[in-house]
Amino acid sequence: MQTKSISLILLVLLVWMGVPSLPHATPLITHNGSLNPVSEGWTRHVSPLPIPEGPLTPDPIGGLPAWNINDNSGDRIGGSALWYASTLTPAQITAAQTDGWTLTTRLRVASIPDDPDFGVNVIFVDGVRSYDMYFGTQADGDQVIMLGETNSPFTGPQYVAEGQGNAYHLYQLVFDPGVGSASLFVDNNPVPVLTNYTGKSPIDPPGSIFWGATSSFTTGNGNYNLVEFDIQAVPEPGTLTLVGLGVLGLFGYHWRPLLRRTRKAVVDRSGIA
Questions:
Q1: Using an 8 Å Cβ cutoff, are 134 and 145 in contact?
Q2: How far apart, in whole angstroms, are the C-alpha atoms of residue 145 and residue 133?
Q3: How many CB atoms lie within 10 A of CB 67?
Q4: How far apart are the C-alpha atoms of 111 and 86, rounded to whole Å?
Q5: Are 242 and 39 in contact (CB under 8 A)?
Q6: pLDDT digits (tens, 9 = 90+) for 120-167
Q7: Whose CA is closest to 131, among 163, 164, 173?
Q8: Is the peptide bond before 27 cis (omega within 30 degrees of 0)?
Q9: Which of these, 66, 116, 136, 203, has the minimum number of CB atoms within 10 Å of its CB?
C-alpha cells in the first residue's frame, strides 16, 4: 500500500508540474547574436538609402553579441531606413490567431536619450492588427519600451527599466487568443509589466514580422541580440479544470478500497454486526 501511495503522489506531482506551461514550439524565424540576418533567412530592406549596420562581437556594453542598426545620424534630407523581415504563410497566420504567439527580442538602445518610435522597433502583423514594440532610452540610459497604439504621434502604454541603465533586456510579447490581447513580460519575470494590449490598425502586409529602423523620419541606434517569433498555444482554464478533475478521480479510485477497509475495521472493533 505504501508503494502504491508513493507512486500515486509522484504521478500527481508530475501532472501538476506539467500543466501550467506548455512546451515552447520551435521558433518559426530567429535572429541570434552577431549573425548576418540574411544568412538566417531574413529579407533585407533598404529605403531608399542604406544606413550603417554590422556585427558586434561582442557589444562592449553588456558583453553580448548583437547586430547593430545605426539610424542615428539625424540626416533626414535624403531619408534612410533599413530593416529585416519575414512573412508567415496563410496557414501560419491562422494558427497564430487561433493558438496564440510570442514575439521575443533581447536588445539595447545605444542612443541616449531617444524617444521610442520606428528608429528601433520589432513588429508583428497578424492580418487583423499590428503589434508594435518601440524602443528608446531616458536621459540616464534606462531602457524604454512602448506598445504602439498610434504613430502620429507615437502613443501607447510604456514600461521603463528604472535604475538599470543602458543595459540589454529580454522582452516577450505574448498573445492569448482566449482574451484577444497581448501581455508584455520583461527579463523572464512571470508577472507581466503591461497587459491587455490589443495592437493597432495595420499598415503592413498580413503575417509580417520585422525589426530594425523602419522609417526615414525617426532615428535610433539599436543592438539586436535576439529576435524570434513562435506560435504557442496558451493553456485554457477549461483544460486545467479537466486535468484537475482527472487527478481527483485518480485519488478517489485509489483511496476507495482503503476507505471501505477502514470503515469495516471500525465497525468490527465496535462490535456492530
A1: yes
A2: 7
A3: 28
A4: 26
A5: no
A6: 999 999 989 999 999 999 999 999 999 999 988 999 999 999 999 999
A7: 173
A8: no
A9: 203
Which of the two residues, 160 and 73, has the higher pLDDT score? 160
Q: Which residues of 112-125 are buried (b: 16+ CB within 10 A; e: fewer)?
A: eebbbbbbbbbbbb
CA nearest to 151, candidates 238, 103, 237, 215: 215
Nearest to 148 by CA among 193, 110, 102, 202: 202
- Backbone φ, ψ for residue 202 (5° rounding): -80, 150
User: Which phi and psi angles does 239 have, rounded to 5°?
Assistant: -65, -45
The fraction of the chain above a pLDDT of 90, given in percent, is 66
Find where cell 507581466 sits.
Answer: 192
* Cα 146 to Cα 156: distance, rounded to the nearest angstrom: 6
Helix locations, 48-207, DSSP H: 90-99
Q: Are 166 and 110 in contact (CB under 8 A)?
A: yes
